[in-house]
Amino acid sequence: MNSNSGYNGLFDPMLAPGRTLDFAQQGLSNKTVGNPFSEKAKMSVRNLNVYYDNKQAIHDVSLDIKRNEVMAMIGPSGCGKSTFLRCLNRMNDTLDNCRVEGEVTLDEHNIYDRKQDVVPLRARVGIVFQKPNPFPKSIYENVAYGPKVHGLVSRRAQLDEIVEDSLRKASLWDEVKDRLFSPGTGLSGGQQQRLCIARTIAVSPEVILMDEPCSALDPIATARIEELMAELSQNFTIAIVTHSMQQAARVSNRTAYFHMGRLIEVNDTRRVFTNPEHELTEAYITGRFG
Amino acid sequence: MSKAKSKVSIANNLNTIDLVQRNLAKRKRAEWRFRAYGVGAILFGLACLLILFSDIISKGHGAFMQTQIYMEVTLDSQRLNIDDPTSDQQIRQANYDSVLAQALIAQYETGSTLSENTADSFKPLSALDKRQLLNLISTGAVYTIGQRLSDNPQLLNQTVGFWLIADDDVDNYVKNIEHGGKGFSSRLNKQQQEWVNNWMANEQVRQVFNSTFFTSGDSREPEQAGIHSALVGSLYMLLVTIGLTFPIGIAAAVYLEEYAAKNRVTDFIEVNINNLAAVPSIIFGLLGLAIFIGFFDMPRSVPLMGGLVLTLMTLPTIIISSRAAIKAVPPSIRDAAYGLGASKMQVVLHHVVPLAMPGMLTGAIIGFALALGETAPLLMIGMVAFIVDVPNGLMDPSSALPVQIFLWADSPERAFVERSSAAIMVLLAFLITMNGLAVWLRHRLGRSYQ
Ligand SMILES: Nc1ncnc2c1ncn2[C@@H]1O[C@H](COP(=O)(O)OP(=O)(O)O)[C@@H](O)[C@H]1O
Ligand SMILES: [Mg+2]
To answer: A14, A241, B5, B51: which could join A81 in a potential S-S bond, CB 3.0 to 4.6 Å?
Structure first.
């Protein structure tokens, strides 16, 4: 609680939103309030700093993600949620200008270890992107691609089984079982996103990262995916970035609030939305900036 | 001051929709003009194309027909110098010129039944007349006679009717008359014209499809000249160029786009590739001359050399267009594949290259089409030689279609001008076929990725 003492005198709910933002940009501390750490961590992030060229996008973030929980990450746009998420399966390695410092462990093993190969890592930590991005191939090929590149199956029948199972888990099977061999790009936006989820599940990852998976979808498609996440959390650990606080409140167990590259607050979701510890969190969830 | 005020008040009196209406007509006119510029540009392009095509076709279509003259030739064994009709050697080396000359002259000196007009004006032919008469038949005609005799040796000592290739001047004269002209521009003299007129009156003259044009190499005699060797030479060069450029170009583009770090060295390479694409083609000919011929001591005028030089010339274009095609692959597809744990090579081979392939093909085909029509660099490496034989491989001296066109267009004979236009038509047909192939391939590849 003392970390936010610096703002106490300045914080005034009557201030104009512009003024609030001004204040929010001054002298942020790197200290996180709430409970970022856990005994049952599936993934642990310690002192993570991320730079694009020379611009720092993540400042000294430490956070644990518990086994089989849904961890939501919220915050104003540009605060580094996606950057943080992409560090968890080293997707940032594909960017030339991105530099990562710190430690990220998966089952107590540092994934930024020199000897760690990204290929098996990404098989264990899958990712679903903001915009549905099915390959311009058939629905079947989309789901079968992961198992194929990892050589998970040797027989066609096994592959068929994985495809069906994944599509069922992504609650897409009934809608596409009659047209498995038509292009995945011909599906509706919501179906495409569920196809992408099925494609990710097909590799049987342990952790699924989702970067605003519903922001390109209509409310009905969003509701289906939210339902799906509740089911998936029984088998997978999920970290989801969302710009919708309602969504975070509906689907997650814990919520992390990011601000300007800092992790401000981590708490149980209910706590964050009913009784935030930090006034920046409060300002955000009451809609004063974002 | 008051003016400005009144304007404002006018604007205030009209409501928004009226203002919009007032501007609408102007906007529509501007819209219409904008479209008209586009249509105008396309019409201009089409008109140029139409003029080009109609000019080439009107000049060149004649070359696809050839004039033949009917002549009855007595295959007299004495004149032919054949003692032993079973000897191939003797039949091959027989004196066909003599029997042909005899047949031609006989028409006039003996008052041949074929010609009634000449029977009246019968007079012995002078040596000059004889030579002029012989000039009306192509020097290639003896091969027609010789071929027939070696196929049917029993024809020896018989009188046989032949359709013989006419000389190019006769060909020209006949074509001109048949198209309603009077043969004015003909290079035949009065006497020769009369002879040809007689033959025409006797229906001893016909026009047939000019297969010689497609089956022969170059020749000093236009009526015997063809594009076969040049076409085959061009094809070999194109094979070398495609075979080298496509894999090298794609490999370079993939490496530069997907693997190479973005630093000074790659910037330098990129600038150089862009510059090379703008280097005049003749410079590549000089380069080929200096390196392949001067340094590696490779033979001149062979398709392999031509192909290598054209490879140097096309490579930068192909690399640039392939890189553009690779850049155009949506990053979301790459992300999707990497996110599933595909390795870099898998991402490249499974997604980037298949998705970029249509774009790369388009660039490549344009490059190959330019290479196919390229003349200047080939001149530098000696592919401008007079080649009669059809090349049998990459190391046989050969010509190339555009070089052949260049050579013929440079010749004074009218018949060569006609043939160069015809060769241009063949070249264009070749290019259109290639483009058609590219469209088809693009379609196929686009589907096969799915
Ligand atoms: N590829 C990149 N290159 C340079 N800067 C980037 C890149 N991606 C993100 N950034 C910057 O990093 C910061 C965090 O971005 P991001 O993680 O995408 O935010 P969020 O997902 O929370 O909206 C932003 O200031 C953004 O401009
Ligand atoms: Mg984002």
So the answer is: A241
